[in-house]
Design goal:
- Helix 2 packs parallel to helix 3 (58-65) and helix 6 (226-240) runs parallel beside helix 7.
- The chain has helices at residues 9-21, 32-41, 58-65, 107-179, 182-213, 226-240, 260-276, 322-325, 334-343, and strands spanning 2-5, 26-29, 46-50, 75-80, 98-102, 221-224, 245-249, 256-259, 283-290, 294-301, 348-354, 358-366.
- The protein is of the alpha/beta class.
- It is elongated.
- The strands form 3 sheets. The protein has a 5-stranded parallel sheet with strand order 2-1-3-4-5, sandwiched between helices.
- The structure holds adenosine-5'-diphosphate.
- The site of adenosine-5'-diphosphate (ADP) has 22 residues, from helix 7, helix 8, helix 9 and strand 12.
- Residues 273-274, 277, 301, 303-304, 306, 314, 319-321, 324-325, 330-336, 359, 361 line the site of adenosine-5'-diphosphate (ADP).
Length: 374
């Protein structure tokens, strides 16, 4: 918008008319004081400022405006009666562009100058926009890089822990073998196997992440029984965590069409998290609801829970709740992989949780999906 400041009403009207005819939005002020008030309230691209006015003259207005942050990019065209006044023009005003036109105003020249200032203003605005986008992008990349560095350091640590255990058990094994103590050999072997399985899971997760990233995670969908899958999963989980009582509520549909191994992976992920983040509790529920078109599977625990503002983030890559991360081992990728798997099946993941009371991580799956070719 352009602000015209002139104490002569006829000048104001005629200038306004011409500019509006050329599609410029125009505001007017009939004194320096009024102009200052308006500049405080609105943003102007350009101010056309009469130099000779009673009260505050044009130069004083310009000087005052130069202190306003709102008018930082505003250009000024002075209208002056005589050339001699122009030596004052640059005094004090160092903000947007400056120019002048002598009276009587040649409208063609004024229009040319107005258009030039508008063009410069537009270019400036675009440059500022581009600069902002670039700064945002740099900040985003720096954040991503930091997250990745953190992840590499956590991942190496997580891989090293089971590896160190395996090394220890192999040394113990060697001694037990030398002694011919078969019972101890078996015990150490079983323990080494548990650690190797952990290592295997970690590496599988890391491979999944890289496959997801490169779009190479493939699905092998077919019909299978969710009930049978759940039975198998619960048996394995129960063996490793006999202190937990896991119950199933609801009846699963006879068959679902999905990638069996990947759905098993998601359920195991929810269940192992439910156990990991619920120290000191014994109860876990698997809640199943079968609608006409949708299956709901929720894993309910009574553990530490998640604060409402963090619940959305837990499905993000590398995200771990900061306050609790030091107490629990993990890479922060299990839920991200689960979410991707479920979304690629046309379903949704989510969590309902109360801090200190527990969580229900759930996924839904469409029951009559279009059988696409993967
Ligand atoms: P990880 O457990 O390896 O850190 P996940 O991607 O499985 O990674 O989980 C991401 C984060 O979500 C966890 O670090 C934890 O803070 C939070 N979280 C996951 N499951 C639960 C749960 N059942 N109860 C409380 N917090 C959980």
């Amino acid at each position: 918008m352009i602000l015209i400041v002139d104490d002569t009403p006829e000048n104001l009207i005629s200038l306004k008319k011409v500019l509006e005819k050329h599609n410029f939005e125009v505001d007017t002020a009939s004194s320096g004081e009024e102009a200052l008030k308006k500049v405080l309230r609105n943003e102007y691209v350009l101010i056309i400022l009469d130099v000779q006015m009673p009260g505050m003259d044009g130069f004083e207005v310009a000087e005052a405006i130069s202190g306003y942050s709102k008018a930082k990019e505003t250009a000024i065209i002075f209208l002056s009666a005589a050339n001699t006044e122009l030596k004052f023009i640059t005094k004090g005003y160092s903000s947007g562009g400056l120019d002048y036109i002598t009276k009587p105003v040649d409208m063609d020249i004024l229009l040319l100058k107005v258009k030039t200032f508008y063009r410069i203003y537009e270019q400036n605005r675009k440059l500022i926009e581009i600069q902002k986008a670039l700064l945002d992008e740099i900040a985003f990349r720096k954040r991503a890089e930091r997250k990745k560095d953190e992840f590499i350091s956590i991942a190496s640590h997580e891989l090293k822990t089971p590896l160190t255990s395996v090394k220890g058990y192999v040394q113990l094994l060697e001694r037990s073998v030398d002694k011919g103590d078969i019972a101890t050999v078996k015990k150490h072997l079983a323990k080494a196997q548990v650690q190797l399985e952990k290592l295997n899971e970690l590496i599988a997760d890391l491979l999944d992440i890289s496959k997801l990233e490169s779009g190479k995670l493939k699905f092998n969908k077919k019909n299978f029984s969710l009930g049978t899958l759940l039975e198998g999963v619960l048996e394995v989980i129960h063996q490793a965590n006999p202190e937990f009582n896991i119950t199933i509520n609801g009846i699963p549909p006879k068959e679902i069409y999905a990638d069996e191994m990947r759905i098993e992976q998601v359920i195991i992920n929810f269940l192992t998290n439910a156990i990991k983040y619920s120290p000191g509790t014994k109860e876990i529920q698997v809640n199943i609801e079968t609608g006409d078109n949708e299956l709901y599977v929720g894993v309910r625990d009574f553990g530490i829970g998640i604060a409402p503002e963090l619940q959305k983030s837990v499905f993000e890559k590398f995200y771990r709740v900061e306050e609790t991360a030091i107490h629990f081992q993990g890479l922060g990728i299990g839920l991200y992989i689960s979410a991707e798997i479920i979304e690629r099946h046309g379903g949704e993941v989510g969590v309902k949780s109360k801090l200190g009371e527990g969580s229900e991580f759930y996924f839904t799956l469409p029951l009559n999906p279009v059988h696409e070719v993967e």
